[in-house]
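Issue 218. Parser rejects a valid record. Input:
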Amino acid sequence: MVNKKLTVFLVIAVLLSILISSNTAQARIYSYTLFDVPGATTGTVAFGINNAGTVVGMYGQSGYHGFIRTAGGSYTTIDVSGAPGTFIQGINANGRVVGSYGNWEVYTSGHGFIYDNGTYTFPFDVPSSFGTYPVGINRTGQIVGQYSQDGTMQGVRGFLWSDGGFTTLTAPGYISTEPRGINDAGWIVGSYGDANSINHGFIRTPGGVFSTFDVPGAKHTLISGINNHSWICGWYKNDDDIHHGFIYDGSTFSYINVAGYSHTQVWGINDDGKVAGAAFDDFKSNAHGFIATPKSSSCLGPVLQLLMSE
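Output the parser choked on:
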């Protein structure tokens, strides 16, 4: 007669060995929460998320406004006084946010700002720049972003603000450099454009070494965020111009595509692996913010129930 407990333990041991050996090779499955800022008429875009689950971004309603959304779903609108538009793009673990204000239609004319618990610091601009756009901030207060050195898109360069000073970041040999995320250790991610107008992702070490990172098979890659486990996120597209989100954990790609929408862009990631972004058919008129949360996918529960019922 077969000992049922022994059978159960043997099955568990086999399953655990399979799960452990294959865990790093399996793409994660995500659940999605879509949201819109109340009153938004021309779209909601989520750009950043911190470990508390607070999301920041922008929404359209007779102009463009920044927002902060708590994990509980309450919203605060952020507008720089007198500006035609306000956009929040980064938030750190302490709740400090960075963004820009100006005319969104004229990319090279904006100014940066910092917002911290009701207090604004603006303008936050690279000296002598034509437009400054802070987009990422880490726990220590280091800020990364982009600026235009000559008023053109070809003249866009990256910057790192640390210890009160700006450092220009330029991917070697390329036309434009656009940093978008920084983790607490100082690793920076973003994208750059080459001479053929192809966009590639990049990763920059704290020591200043650039390396290219592209989604396999993609024509254009944009990296938008990095967490403290060195997971990166972003989006990519091919000749069909369809946007797809992705997350890379150092060994495996997980792809983010919100059902019911043509395009998905992933913009921010926290240390729990949650990402924030936008799903849309037309970015300027019907974008919706979303949070994607990784789901556990253990098969032990159903197997145990089946075995123990025998």
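Fixed in the parser; the record now loads. Helices lie at 4-22, 283-286, 300-308.
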